[in-house]
Amino acid sequence: MSLLKTWFLAGASTLMALSLLLFPKEALEASLNGMAMWWDVVFPALLPFFILSELLIGFGVVAFIGTILEPFMRPIFRVPGAGGFVWAMGLASGNPAGAKLAARLRQQQKVTRVEGERLAAFTNSSNPLFIFGAIAVGFFHNPALGLLLASAHYIGNIFVGIFMRFHGRKEEQEQDTSNDPRPKLSFVEAAKKMHQERLQDGRPIGQLLGDSVQSSVRTLLLVGGFIILFSVLNKMLTLVGFTAIAATGVSFVFSIFQLSTTLSEAFISGLFEITSGAKLSSVSDALLLEKAIITSFFIAFGGLSIQAQVASILSETDLRFKPFFIGRILHGFFSAFLTWLLWIPLYQNNGVLQTLTYSAHSTSEPNLHWMVTLWNQWLAISPFLTLATLCLVILLQTRAHLQRI
């Protein structure tokens, strides 16, 4: 089995190299598209949350929040109260923030391995700006669709958390918590833990801020590499015909569920990289409901690009990747089902939201939703934020190197 794996990996990497030689222009274009996505959207969107989360951990705020949320998170999800902080930050900042923070808590021994795996499995999600801005507005030109996709996405994640509470119960070394006294809400105890946590960290504010920026940028550089890699990989698989062959098999499955077979290629692309799949899905000839269901699935699944990012982050700890992968599959099915279930109440019967839909070719400005303006303004300023941050990190690294000399 090990020998077979070696041959498979060697063959796959060789074919990838040959594809790059055969299609250099297309590979460059795909690489630039991935780079633009990271530079304009991913880096500036995730950076503030990554830095803020590091500061909140260092200042003891996470310990405070964990004590407050313990009575809520422990009975429902079987994770410590600090998981509520990870959940909130993962929702606001998007992939792969949940996995990064879960790994961070594990490194600090604030969660057990099983708790960390549960936490990573349901705290990863796409942020609202990406769902409303990039998907609903940018690709579908339909801001009203954003509410449907976001609702199915976040409710589906709650279902994943409830399902994953049963993960690893036999492996837990601690006693059954059902016999333990139920944790009580105590602001005094929470304040004490916050103070103790800050004293235990011990770093001055300047050092903590510098460490937070550098740690966040290192993680985001890793994320950027995976985004570019899978953008190129997705393009190469399309050019060599793999996507078309795989889409044939997917078309058979879609026909069983009475979904348009024209979405099969978009589905395969979305399994590798979300934005590519959403773009193909938005221009297909299928019904809008079918497009929404398929898109909702691979947004929740995260694409193999995000899966690889999370695997790399979790490899720094003893957290296993398999529970996360199972959680993403469950999230995909939950979100797809909820999109179908909520279609009528949240989209079809919501006349107010329907007026927000606009045509990609329309020149009528009054029909534009405010989210369109927000998304365009974000794209205008985000490259400068990325450039400024990278320059700051270079200065910090240079200063640290000179001090060592």
TrEMBL record:
<keyword id="KW-1133">Transmembrane helix</keyword>
<feature type="transmembrane region" description="Helical">
    <location>
        <begin position="43"/>
        <end position="69"/>
    </location>
</feature>
<dbReference type="Pfam" id="PF07670">
    <property type="entry name" value="Gate"/>
</dbReference>
<dbReference type="InterPro" id="IPR011642">
    <property type="entry name" value="Gate_dom"/>
</dbReference>
<feature type="transmembrane region" description="Helical">
    <location>
        <begin position="236"/>
        <end position="257"/>
    </location>
</feature>
<feature type="transmembrane region" description="Helical">
    <location>
        <begin position="325"/>
        <end position="346"/>
    </location>
</feature>
<feature type="transmembrane region" description="Helical">
    <location>
        <begin position="375"/>
        <end position="396"/>
    </location>
</feature>
<protein>
    <submittedName>
        <fullName>Sporulation integral membrane protein YlbJ</fullName>
    </submittedName>
</protein>
<feature type="domain" description="Nucleoside transporter/FeoB GTPase Gate">
    <location>
        <begin position="41"/>
        <end position="130"/>
    </location>
</feature>
<keyword id="KW-0812">Transmembrane</keyword>
<feature type="transmembrane region" description="Helical">
    <location>
        <begin position="119"/>
        <end position="139"/>
    </location>
</feature>
<feature type="transmembrane region" description="Helical">
    <location>
        <begin position="292"/>
        <end position="313"/>
    </location>
</feature>
<dbReference type="InterPro" id="IPR014226">
    <property type="entry name" value="Spore_IM_YlbJ"/>
</dbReference>
<keyword id="KW-0472">Membrane</keyword>
